[in-house]
Amino acid sequence: MEKYIGFLVIILMGAVIVAVATNVSFFGAPHENPPGPGGFSFFSFPDKAYTPTPSPSKPLFPSLSSGGGTTQESPPDKGGAGGLSAPSTETIRKALTLRRANATRTGPQEEYLDLQYRSSFFRKDELSSLDLTDWTVENTRGDRFSFGYVANLPYAGEVNQLARFIVPSDSTIHVITGKSPFSASFRTNTCTGYFAQFDSYTPSIDQQCPRPSDEPAQGSLNDACLDYIESLPSCRIPQNTLLDIGNTCRVYITNNINYRGCVANHKIDADFYRNEWYVYLGRPTELWKEKREHIILRDGQGTLMAELEY
User: Fold this and answer.
1) Which of 181, 179, 185 is nearest to 166 (CA)?
2) Got the DSSP string for 163-184?
3) Would the CA dihedral through 22, 28, 32, 38 be positive or negative?
4) Which of 175, 205, 230, 291 has its Cβ near the most Cβ atoms within 10 Å?
5) Using an 8 Å Cβ cutoff, are 237 and 257 in contact?
6) C-alpha–C-alpha distance, residues 259 and 196, integer Å
7) CA distance linking residue 2 with residue 7, whole number of Å
């Protein structure tokens, strides 16, 4: 009998050791014991309940930028914004001038205002870049129209990536009543003169593109090809390519003498971007009267920033 009792005691002691080793209670759920500093101990029990320390986690909803769903960034500000203070509303008002331009013209595509933003009113320690995205223009009847988003690097005939409408000082904005030829307001650059070959723009786009003969990588072209390239005008895609210039020459012209090729070759140039914008309000009819018109420019909060009467 004593043999059986001894054997039973040994079995019970073994069960206790296994239970502790596997962190299991005879009377409930598994214990929530943390490992000790040197690892797990079979015979150590905490003096009080263990509360796991929550690990850092990301917010459920990351903060949204002011750019909404846009994907294109604005070109870098050469001056930078580090350490600069925001100018007063009155300073910004002084820097803005609203001009009539072609406001009295007939037809929404020819009707436009000019907004000039000048740097002469800013101190050196003031940030002069201005976000015009939510600004509006208003006519005598009280109709308001927002500027909206723009393409900083536009492409005609494509879906453009849009960004907030942020301008540096010394900028000119053409506010056209009608619709954009390619459904986007845009910033001009050294290559946008190519747009005028197939679409009409009011006011006219500056056609001072790099000359075809100044495009890079022409060292391997033959004399006939080089002579032909020298004869080409700026901002124009050749329409009647000579038959005897050779395939290499044709490939070069196809890849370089057009808007896309111009952008690829010059977008890193210091003077590539121009401080001129074409902003389209997308209206099918005229907005401004031929006379007795009062035009108001308001910021995103509705504050009057500039006005024009004629």
Assistant:
1) 185
2) B--EE-SSEEEEEESS--TTS-
3) negative
4) 175
5) yes
6) 11
7) 9
- Residue 186 CB coordination number (10 Å): 24
What is d(CA 132, CA 297) in angstroms, rounded to the nearest whole number? Answer: 10
Strands 171-176 and 273-280: parallel
| CA nearest to 192, candidates 221, 218, 160, 217 | 160
User: CA 243, CA 174: separation in Å to the nearest integer?
Assistant: 42
What's the helix, strand, coil split of the chain in %, to 5? Answer: 20, 20, 60
Longest CA–CA separation in the chain, Å: 122
Domains defined for the chain, CATH in brackets: 92-190+271-309 (2.60.40.1260), 209-270 (no CATH)
- Residue from 110, 101, 106 nearest 179 by CA: 110
d(CA 70, CA 150): 10
Continuous H helices in the chain:
2-21, 89-95, 223-230, 247-256, 259-266
* Pairing state between β 144-146 and 150-151: unpaired
Give the pair of three-digit tokens for residue 133. 């995205």
Name residue 57's amino acid. S
- Report mean pLDDT in 10-residue bins for the chain, 310 residues: 51 49 39 37 32 31 32 50 82 96 95 96 88 98 97 95 97 98 96 97 96 96 95 94 86 96 97 98 96 97 97
Which residues pair with residue 174 across a beta bridge?
Answer: 114, 278
Q: Comparing C-alpha atoms, which of 170, 163, 148, 43 is closest to residue 97? A: 170
